[in-house]
Structure formats: structure tokens, C-alpha cells
Amino acid sequence: MGQKFSAAALFRKGISGDDWPRAWRHHDLQSTYDVVIVGGGIHGLATAYYLAKHHGIDRVAVIEKGYIGGGGSGRNTAIIRANYLTPEGSRFYDRSVELYEGLSDDLNFNIMFEQRGHMTLAHSDASLRTMRWRAEVNKLQGIDSEVIGPEDVKALAPMIDTSRRVGHPIEGALWHPPGGIARHDAVVWAYARGADSLGVHIHQQTEVTGIDVDGGRVTGVQTARGRISAPVVVNCTAGWSSIISAMAGVRLPITTTPLQAAVTEPVQHFLHPVVVSGTLHVYVSQTARGELVFGAAVDPYTSYKTNGSLEFTEGLAAHILELMPAVGKMRLLRQWAGLCDMTPDYAPIISGTPVDGFYVDVGWGTWGFKAGPVAGEQTAALVATGRVPELIAAFGYDRFAEGTLTAEKGAAAVGH
């Protein structure tokens, strides 16, 4: 998949300045496709890839108003885990971890997936009870997850202050060894290359301006470059999912809220696992290059703004310094924000809709990156077969009207 080069050929190209082959091709916009996918992030590209690979559906167009991976897929903190609260959520994300483990081989592209472990800190007896609950739910699904004490926290992450002198002493943690991080842009590029090699057309700088519906069935999409006729349209957008769905006459119970993050200068590696504190509203990991990547809870208001704020930086710094005082002299290099589409039960919507042929893979809140592979796999199966796969049965559009919600807030309150 994709063109391969020997080590010698790579060296020659590096010093000669020869043009590299395109990772994915440019295509003229066709007037007709079998499937149009709106959104060129991880979810849209993975859906296109698995449609072609597993179901032989390759007359697929991925439509992206900006550049590939320039939305939520390029603005997240790249954390992967499966230690969710509900059985449905745990099973779903466990399948995604399984796919991530083999993704570099499957797509012939190094996504830099490192299973360093994921640690969710508990700062009170009530929080520790929730961690034990999650651990037991995980174990019943065959997921490696356990509650550990402060001494184990210190052994796994020596820079964390586990003393009783701090304002929020650590009582224990939920330890999830399969969790870790990956290079988010590498995952995007890998799926784009893979989908392109199977015949999928990727159209960047192509904004969707309308969705055509006739007699309760989708018939195509309007774009800034012209109309496309298609019997199937899949909404795989983040941040704009309710706007895109409204074009087809489908209302989504979603609010859109910014989530800010920040990164420091690179330093020698000292933090191996991903560390999360719901009480302090912060999570942190260290990249392969040595930067610390921080995030917090979503902003306390709905908005489409993606700029940072001083209030976020001040709050983040205070909480990180309580957690790891020794990093106080590190310099914060930059901060940014992404858009989170939040549902009432903090679980996604992967489903058909009242409009025939119009599907949604939306509502990911702060955990869309970790779900990319499994969401693409399951959405592709739904579209190709018309049957709802068991892994996504709990995430249907109708659950909000029926009152059968999948409550994941307890495992997603800080996002990661």
C-alpha cells in the first residue's frame, strides 16, 4: 500500500531533492459516486478505507472543506484507551485499541503508537469507588484495568507528588496498561494513503453547501465545486456535525464546545504513562520528541471559537504544578483549541437517520481520536450491509427519543 523505498533509495531522494510521489492523488470531482463522506478526518477516511477494503465499495468521495486532518483530527491530544464506564463503551473502545495495535502494519505507515499505560487518578474516596466500578466493568469485558495505590502511582510516574501536603492528595488510580498515545497526523495520513490506494477519491478544499433530499431519501450533495449525485451520504464531521445534518433536515441533540490544549518545550523523557486527573481537570502525556502535552475540561460555554485563552493557561498551570511541581520551570510553547460535539449522554451517534441513505458518525465530544479505527470499521459495515453491527447498537440516533441512553460521563468528564 503506497510506494515503498529501500533505505538507499530514501537516502538518495533525501539528498538529491527529487520530487516525492504524492501520498494520495488529486482527482477531478465526479458527478456521481456510490457514497459521499463529509469530513476528511480520521473518521471519514477510516470509513472510506474500510468500505473499500472490507466491502468492495470504492466509488467513494471524501469531501473536506479544508485540508485532510485539519479539523478535530489535527487538534486533539492523541490519547488512546478502552477503560470506559459502560460495558457498551468498553467493548467498543477495546476494539479500537485492537485495531490501533495492528494499524501500522495494516496501512504500511508508522503511526507511532506507544502503549505506555493510562492512569486516571482518584483524589477522594468517592472517586476511588468510581475507579473500582470502572475496573470491574473493564475486567468483565476482558480489558486489562485495575485500581492501584499511591505507592504504585509514584513508581509508575515518579514526578507526581503523592504526598499528603497537597490540596488534593492522591488516594489511588485506575491503571490501564494498554492505553497510550499515537501520532495523530500520521494516523490521518495512513488512512488517506490506504483509502486512495483502494480507489477512493479525496477532495480537499471542497465545502459542502447543501444536502439534497427527495421523498425522504438523500440524493446527493451540493458543494462549492458543483453537485454530486449519491444514494448514500455519511456525516463524519466534528464541530460542524449539527450544521451538516441540518442540511438534510436531521436535528441532532448536540452542543458544540471548545476544548483547549497546550504543549511545552521538549525535555528529556521522564513521564512514561498518560496521566489524568478528573478532580484537577487536567491530563498530560509526553510525546516521543519530549514535549508535555496538556489538556483540561471543555470550556464552560458553547462556541465555534478555536483560539486559546489566558484563563485556560492560568488554570492549567496551577493544576499541573500541584500534580508535578518539578515542571514549574518548563516553558509553554503554544496552545490551541478544537471543537467538541457533546451529546446528552456523552456517547457518540453512529447510526442511520430518519432520512434514508443519510448516516451519521458524530457526537464524539473529547474522545473521537481514540475511536477512529473502530468507528470507521463499524460505520462502513452499517453503510454496506444496512444492518446495525452489535458494537454500535447502543449508539443509535433513536435512543434519545426512546430514553435508552448510554451514560459515559463518569468515564469522560475530563475528556481523556
Mean pLDDT: 94
Based on the coordinates given, report the CATH architecture of the largest domain.
3-Layer(bba) Sandwich
| Backbone shape | globular
**Annotated CATH topology of the largest domain:** FAD/NAD(P)-binding domain
- Percent of residues in helical segments? 25-40%
Distance between the termini: 32 Å
Structure summary, number of beta strands: 19
In the CATH scheme, the class of the largest domain would be Alpha Beta
Number of helices: 12
Q: What is the count of distinct domains? A: 2
Unreliable parts: none
CA-atom Rg in angstroms: 21 Å
CATH superfamily of the largest domain: FAD/NAD(P)-binding domain
Description of the structure:
31% of the residues lie in helices and 22% in strands. The chain has 416 residues and is α/β, with parallel strands linked by helices. The model has no long low-confidence stretch (mean pLDDT 94). It has two domains: 31-78 and 184-254 and 345-412, FAD/NAD(P)-binding domain; 115-177 and 255-342, D-Amino Acid Oxidase, Chain A, domain 2 (2-Layer Sandwich), CATH 3.30.9. The protein has an eight-stranded mixed β-sheet with strand order 5-6-4-14-15-16-13-17.
